[in-house]
Design goal:
The protein is α/β, with parallel strands linked by helices. It contains 5 helices and 4 strands. The protein has a single domain, classed as Response regulator (Rossmann fold, 3-Layer(aba) Sandwich). It has a 4-stranded parallel sheet. Helix 1 crosses helix 5 and helix 2 crosses helix 5. It starts with a strand and ends with a helix.
Length: about 160
Amino acid sequence: MEKINVLFVCLGNICRSPLAEAIFTKMVEEKGLSDQINIDSAGTANYHIGERPDPRTIDNARANGVELLSRARQFVSADFELYDYIIPMDDSNLQNIIKLKPDSGIHNYKVIKMRKFDPEQKGADVPDPYYGGAQGFQNVFDILKRSNEHFIEHLLNEHNF
């Protein structure tokens, strides 16, 4: 069976998308699916390429039992060829991703907003906690955890793991 490739995307790749990546990675490992799912994250902007996640994101993740190991990178059009699921955090990043979509549709990728999988606010944006306080980071963690729980169930059903 071919691996499923998942890419989480936000603006700078230092808050929401690396946190989504880390939460999802932990869930995939706990379900014994690491051999079947590749996970990464990226940002639509080039502000933080090569940087570690925001220290507040790292602290929040640790407080919730999750380790962030990624470094920021920018989303590029070649990602459409590499990833089966491209998961933007909000409408703005969704639009930025769509602008980079290649004309040839040779790969069967799916671009789906993260909160499409959130039973509490289906389709809403994941708020950017960058300019907020600690509670904003915890709110984002809770949203991403809940959404990823339903996303992994979606993958289990869709791909018969």
